[in-house]
Amino acid sequence: MALFGKKIGSKKEKSAKADAKKHVARAKISADGVAHDIIRAPWFSEKALIVTEKGVYTFGVSTRATKAEIAGAIKEIYKVTPKKIRIVNLPAKKKAMRTKRGVGSRVARRKAYVYLNKGETIKFS
What we know:
With 125 residues, the chain is α+β, with helices and mostly antiparallel strands. It has helices at residues 11-31, 35-38, 46-51, 67-78; strands at residues 39-42, 56-61, 82-90, 94-96, 103-105, 109-116.
């Protein structure tokens, strides 16, 4: 409701343009070699190893990483294109310590489930 300005476009158009710019910026981030900061390590647990037979790979990722950044890092490191990515935030746990303090806490972590297309695999060496 501006009196002295032009109506440039709807809010949806502006947000779509902004999202496209962010997506391009994220693609550049992963292309600069930051992929190993986004994907910290493969997640080797019993449950994670069972689902690898179905084409789902689990990785420990940065707490600030987005799905687009994770997808770009997977493409860069392992040369495969993910079909879908799911992210899980693991909260910090309170653990008993055998000291005067008594209780400490583990670090909060984040992991990503990366779904691949049929026939694609990731080799961990």
